[in-house]
Amino acid sequence: MGDEGVLWGSNADMSPFWEGCKKQELRFQKCRNCGHVRWPPAVICPRCLSQDKEWIMSEGRGTIYSFVVYHVAFHPAFKGSLPYVTGVVELDEGPSLITNIVDCDPSHLSCDMPVEVVWDHTGDGSVLPKFRPVAI
Q: How many domains is the chain partitioned into structurally?
């Protein structure tokens, strides 16, 4: 596993998520008892405490809840990407992800803007989900 294990955690609970990313599938846990779709994955449902779960595939669409535009690279890996946007995306299925917003002029972004997943193949075998504004 590449850097995603360092950034997001790499354990048995996260394995299906990262396996899905390599196939360009955005996967989340869903409680079979109450239907709650959760992120991050966990052994039990935070709503009903059931351990009965399944993995579902997200459509990869949502809206920007919040975002920030970085003009300083706080890590050398981002130096060539300035300015870059980190945001919270609320997915249509319910969970929220902290991710990068890409393929747009940061000055055109707004909260509640519809976005869709795109896949960043990092070159080390990792595939990261990022989001871009939905073309209208």
A: 1
Q: For residue range 56-92, list pLDDT tens digits in order.
A: 999 999 999 999 999 999 889 889 989 999 999 999 9
Q: How far is CA 40 from CA 28, 78, 82, 96, 134, in A?
A: 8, 25, 28, 9, 25
Q: Which of 69, 87, 9 is nearest to 41 (CA)?
A: 9
**Cβ(28)–Cβ(58) below 8 Å:** yes
Provide the domain limits for residue 69: 4-133
For the chain, the residue count is 136
User: Across residues 30-53, what is the average pLDDT?
Assistant: 96
Backbone phi and psi for residue 81, each to the nearest 5 degrees, phi listed first: -110, 5
